[in-house]
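Predict the 3D structure for this chain.
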Amino acid sequence: MRFQSPLSNLSDVLSQVKDAAKHYQETLTRNEAATRAALIDPVLRALGWDTANTNMVEVEKTLGQVKADYALFDYNKEPKVVVEAKSLGTNLNQPNLIMSLVSYAFQGRLNEVFLTDGIVWSHFDTFQPRNVSPAKTINIETDDPVACAAYLVQHLDAAQFWPEGETIDILAQKINELENTIATLQKDVASLRATCPVNPAGDGQIPTSRPSQIPPGMVFVDLHTITDATGKGVASLRLPDGTVLNTKSWTAVLRACFGTMNSRNSQWSLDKWSRPRQGRVASDHPTLEAQYGTTSI
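Done. Predicted structure below.
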């Protein structure tokens, strides 16, 4: 029974690439794009790189003044590896090819560069004056497939650049969920502002009772001190200027707050909220003070 492991799975892919190179040799020696699709992309995918996702892999990526065939990114969208592709059978020792790799390394500030025709993979990890030789060259056709797989896993596996347990699909899903949540909140804010009661005079103010109209004995508490509003009603809301709003529910309090911010063209930002000092809030937002009533919520 054949033993199954990530290494054996990759060695199987390398064997398939070897067979494809023989079967389609005539086409692949003349066509770099076909070489990428038939020989190089399968190896990158087997190493965890989703070649269809530009958050991980970008083809024809411009780095400074040069353009790389493949740029492989980490989870911060920083390029970490460049793979330069050539058609099958290309002489990879040509000086002009080596110098293009040097340009990639310096323009992209990279330490890992691969040059391949799909069968021969040359790995460059250090470029020194008068020393531009590859650190390692593997040949899928002649070298042991397990040894080739082991080297590629060690130096080209996507797991080195992405957090453990965080696949690109999971990260993309989280981003989409966050964007949907933000869109929903924006709609809710717009709806609340649109439905807030506005003074018929057209001055954008909410109908209120002025400070002089506050009944004797009315006591306000800071909303930030309320940890559990279950079973508690709210009778009035006091704004920073002392204006008192007659509210009968927590929903009315929320709408009044949004309406006041809207009428003042305020920008709602969490870092503007501050703790009240001596019954006041150091911001232009409605004071978080309310009077309890007896109506249950």
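The two ends are 67 Å apart (CA to CA).
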